[in-house]
Write a structure and sequence with these properties.
The protein has an eight-stranded mixed beta sheet with strand order 6-5-14-15-16-13-17-20. A six-stranded mixed beta sheet has the order 8-2-1-12-19-18. It has a three-stranded antiparallel beta sheet with strand order 3-7-4. The protein has helices spanning 13-23, 53-61, 65-68, 112-124, 171-175, 232-239, 243-258, 302-322, 330-358, 363-378, 380-390; strands at residues 5-8, 28-32, 48-52, 73-74, 77-82, 94-97, 107-111, 129-133, 137-142, 147-151, 156-159, 161-164, 180-196, 203-209, 212-219, 223-231, 261-277, 281-282, 285-287, 293-294. The protein is 35% helix and 30% strand.
Length: 406
């Protein structure tokens, strides 16, 4: 058996896990269904991530952060407001600044094109990682001491553990008999980048509108990423608008926050839904990232949740190995599930409630949620808890999220 762990999925969580495990002494094979170059876009490709401070620490511990730091934008402040259909906005009812967190900025904005490239380069430099691209796992069979995997090329592999980092439609989970629960939101995310005429100052905005929230996320070069959630029928009409009409409508809603701006790069869209695996583990199988939990992007926590999975799973496996345990034994994998499932499910369902509360046309709901959020903002304990949760610093943190190597 040449490898300890096989990872299916070459997005971001899979490579991060491969690096964490290799640095802990494991031999890893990563199977990436996408061919090399599939994510090599030169411009903004619609994917940018709000990395919590804890996630940045993990990337630093893996040695990846120095390669992307120049392209990252620190989140200096977060402003949340409740918009109205005509585009006017009430004053911010939640506002947080960098100085309120002793450890540093609450997080960073980073585009996928930089982060994925750096992870791939780091894997190429790690002798304990074998990366296969343009190949997928098509079959798996768990045994008493190993799990056997068949690739789309016909090659057969075996390892102690198979980890599914292969997204919401995870083949690893499906073949392991793990079922999913979830529902659609009846919303579509419209995504694009804007070039601002004035500096954004590292301020991230979340504007709640009846059709869904609009996130304005600061990128390098005084650009911002827009993630505009809208009800599906309206989103379909907006998606088909010419760029000029699209910008007129968008700026009507957010122009008071950004100032003059120009569309830069392409526009993208994708449907929004909730998807939760009923279990994160099966015999010799573990799930991480979207394979375990796909959530609404309302708080930008999707990748952060996945990296928490990565940190927890890598630590559980490293500690099991140090104790001489079978790293895929049921009790070992249960430690990982116990550590991560409640946290991820709670956040996913919490974001579901927030989206439903704010994405509606009820004046009564608007008044009640404004009162509630202002009350949270005025109380020190809830306010501090919110800030630390946003920075990924709450709860029992794995070593990698503390910036410590395994």
């Amino acid at each position: 058996m040449e490898q300890d762990v096989i990872i299916a999925g070459g997005g971001l969580n899979g490579p991060a896990l491969a690096l964490a495990l290799a640095q802990a002494g494991f031999h890893v094979t990563l199977v990436d269904a996408r061919p090399d170059g599939a994510r090599a876009a030169e411009g903004f490709d619609g994917r940018a991530y709000a990395l919590a401070l804890a996630s940045q620490r993990l990337l630093a511990a893996l040695g990846v952060w120095p390669e992307v730091a120049r392209e990252a934008t620190a989140i200096e402040a977060i402003r949340t407001s409740d918009g109205v259909p005509q585009g006017a906005s009430v004053p911010f009812f939640l506002s947080f600044d960098r100085g309120e967190l002793d450890e540093g900025p609450m997080g960073f904005l980073l585009e996928d094109r930089y982060l994925h490239k750096a992870l791939v380069a780091a894997m190429a430099a790690e002798p304990k990682i074998r990366r296969l691209s343009g190949v997928s796992v098509v079959a798996q069979e768990a045994g008493a001491e190993a799990i056997s995997v068949t690739l789309s090329t016909g090659e057969a592999l075996s390892a102690r553990l198979l980890v599914g980092c292969d997204g919401r439609g995870s083949g690893v989970a499906g073949r392991a008999g793990i079922r999913r629960q979830g529902w659609g939101y009846g919303q579509t995310a419209l995504v694009n980048a804007l070039q601002l005429d004035a500096p954004h100052g590292g301020v991230a905005h979340q504007v709640f509108l009846p059709g869904g929230p609009v996130a304005i996320l600061p990128l390098s070069g005084d650009r911002v990423s827009i993630v505009w959630s809208e009800e599906e029928p309206a989103a379909a009409r907006i998606r088909d608008l010419p760029d000029s009409d699209y910008m007129d409508l968008l700026m009507e809603k957010i122009g008071h926050l950004t100032g003059p701006a120009q569309l830069t790069g392409a526009r993208f869209s994708y449907p929004l839904s909730l998807s939760l695996a009923e279990s994160y583990i099966a015999p010799r199988v573990a799930l991480a990232g979207d394979a375990a939990h796909g959530i609404h992007p309302i708080a930008g926590q999707g990748l952060n949740l996945g990296l928490r999975d990565v940190a927890a799973l890598a630590e559980v496996l490293a500690d099991a190995r140090a104790r001489g345990e079978d790293l895929a034994a049921g009790n070992v994998l249960e430690r990982y599930q116990t550590w991560r499932r409640f946290d991820a499910t709670s956040l996913a369902l919490g974001m579901d409630v927030v989206n439903r509360l704010f994405s509606n046309h009820s004046p009564l709901a608007r008044g009640l949620r404004g009162l509630g959020m202002r009350a949270v903002a005025a109380l020190d304990a809830p306010r501090r808890s919110f800030i630390r949760e946003a920075a990924g610093l709450s709860g029992e943190l794995p070593r990698l999220l503390q910036g410590r190597r395994l």
